[in-house]
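Q: Can I see a sequence and its folded structure?
A: Here is a first one.
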Amino acid sequence: MTSYAAKTPDAAGFIDYTAEEDAVWRDLVARQWPMVQRHAAQPYLRGLEVLDMTPDRVPQCPDLSRKLAALTGWHVVPVPALISFGRFFSMLADRKFPAASFIRSRKDFDYIEEPDIFHEIFGHTPLLTDPRFAGFSQAIGRAGMACAREDHAWLIRLYWFSIEFGLTVEGGVTKTLGSGLASSPSELVWAVGGGPELRQFDVIDILRTPYRIDIHQPVYFVIERLDDLFAAAERDLLADVATARRLGLHAPKYPPKEMRA
């Protein structure tokens, strides 16, 4: 379910954003820029510099795609707000990153449950400039295409706790790596502020760890050596999912979601 309507691109892939939508982008960038410069890992910061996004208006997917295609062969493709796991994996396997086309409203400025264009572009595309991260994302997509539909929710946790909400270490300091942290003013500070539980990166442990999309994460995984993440792309991930299913999910670290009447 989503409370937002997708924006429709024209025949060339461009979207006509309003002045207010451009202003939301401008204000989000102004708020996040000093935060990511302080807390984000170098691979993300290098990608942000390479893409050189427009700070005062929503960047357009065709413009970003031209840059990414030259670097890693990836493209950014506008999609509706939410897509199925199957379509998500299929697009990653084809080196196409699905970008929700709308931008959040002012009421969701600090934190939005579902991905918007700020999350997709400011959060995700910088890592896609790096062939190693781009290759990992494609490997997740290929694994998703190969596994059974009932295994999608297990496999996506590896992507969630690394590309979306991963942490790493640089010079003995914990740094944010995931796109969900780069694009969230409130969760970025929470993740490195000493409140959540930090665990060492472990594929089976990650696949067994449940999460919720509508809260700040109570658990993050720290990828001390990025090579460990890239090596995970070479594993038999379908066998890893089978192992995780056999062992079962960990008890969640969050309260159950309240049901709406």
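Q: Show me another, different protein.
A: A second, unrelated one:
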Amino acid sequence: MNYVIVAIGAMIGGLLRYGVSVTFSSPDAGSFPWSTIAINIIGSFFLGLVMMLAGERHYIGDSAKLFLTIGVIGSFTTFSTFSYESLSLFQSGEILRGVIYISASNILSIIAAFGGYAVGKVI
């Protein structure tokens, strides 16, 4: 049953990711990948929130935690795309943009995870 729960969540997360990507798409590999950074920051926020609500607060049960974390959020966020877009920026000679992208993605995603966790503490 856990496989079904994760699969349904993954379908939803994948569709959400596609929707955000289409709405905020990058025209070519040389431009800044705004949709990916937004997806990863949003996903980090919600992962922090869900982990707080599932862990310390016990508002979310095990099945819902699987559905949300591994299913929805796991398929919504995208480390492989982040990695490829970083490589593309470097290969196209946009070293500064690549460094900014990597730094901003990591720092803002960690801040977002902390923010989600903090919001979960007050709920």
